[in-house]
Amino acid sequence: MAISDDILARAAPVLDRMLAHRFVEDICADRLPRDVFHRYLAYEGAFVETAISIFAYATARAPDMAARRWLIGVQSALAESQIPYFEDRFAQLGIAPDTPLPPQARAFDKRMLEIAERGSFVDIVTAMFAAEWMYLAWSRRAHAGPISDPDLRAWVGLHVDDTFVAQAEWLKSAIDTHADPADTARLAAIFVEVTELEIAFHHAPYAPCDEVSA
Ligand SMILES: Cc1ncc(C[n+]2csc(CCO)c2C)c(N)n1
């Protein structure tokens, strides 16, 4: 079995919990409250900025030029198109760019950055694989159904388009190319930990009063 598939198999219970998350179920049933979506977008904007740094660490530790080139392309796309997307949406929807982050969103950002600072190339790639693979899975499911809010529809659409699919698949195959089978248990633990943090992250916009106690 490919190492990436072994990781997915070992992480199946937590991955299934994320895919059955209230946030995902609400989008699939076209009933995600607008205020929840807008708070979520504010937390997301902060994470996309963190993702630029995460990919910068991955670029620095990349084993070859092909990987470096790919990762530089990812950083460029995040800086040149994702960040402007958030700036534009925040302005249109009246979301404050400095919306305070709840503890769960801060914990996710902090731990992802920590893995990037301290981990090996495959550790970083696995953390981002965890973050992207489940987005692809739930976005495909959500995209097949009706989504009334055009902004939410566009957001889900971003995660089923060819660019995002290629990115998630690149991460998966980078694990298979560069990881050693002896790394599997450590990488599966990273995948599980990141997915647990994702579950908490997606719970946060439902409980904005957590921001007060932050
Ligand atoms: C909390 C959170 N987790 C995962 C994703 C999926 N995702 C979409 S773009 C991107 C960064 C660069 O490819 C990632 C990880 C997300 N958006 N937000």
Automatic annotation (TrEMBL):
Asked if the record carries the keyword DNA-binding, the reply is no
Active site residues according to the UniProt entry: 198 (proton donor)
Q: Please state the pathway this protein functions in, per its UniProt record.
A: Cofactor biosynthesis; thiamine diphosphate biosynthesis
Recorded GO molecular functions are: thiaminase activity
Q: Which reaction does it catalyse?
A: thiamine + H2O = 5-(2-hydroxyethyl)-4-methylthiazole + 4-amino-5-hydroxymethyl-2-methylpyrimidine + H(+); 4-amino-5-aminomethyl-2-methylpyrimidine + H2O = 4-amino-5-hydroxymethyl-2-methylpyrimidine + NH4(+)
The record's section on InterPro entries has: Haem_Oase-like_multi-hlx, TenA_E, Thiaminase-2/PQQC, Thiamine_Salvage_TenA
**Keywords tagged on the record:** Hydrolase, Thiamine biosynthesis
Q: Which domain of life is it from?
A: Bacteria
Q: What is its EC number?
A: 3.5.99.2
GO BP term, example: thiamine diphosphate biosynthetic process
Tell me which GO cellular component terms the UniProt record holds: cytosol
| Entries under SUPFAM superfamilies matching the protein | Heme oxygenase-like
The record places domain Thiaminase-2/PQQC at 10-202
Family from the record = Belongs to the TenA family.
- Role noted for this protein: Catalyzes an amino-pyrimidine hydrolysis reaction at the C5' of the pyrimidine moiety of thiamine compounds, a reaction that is part of a thiamine salvage pathway. Thus, catalyzes the conversion of 4-amino-5-aminomethyl-2-methylpyrimidine to 4-amino-5-hydroxymethyl-2-methylpyrimidine (HMP).
* PANTHER family per UniProt: BIFUNCTIONAL TH2 PROTEIN, SI:CH1073-67J19.1-RELATED
Protein name, as recorded: Aminopyrimidine aminohydrolase
Organism the protein comes from: Palleronia sediminis
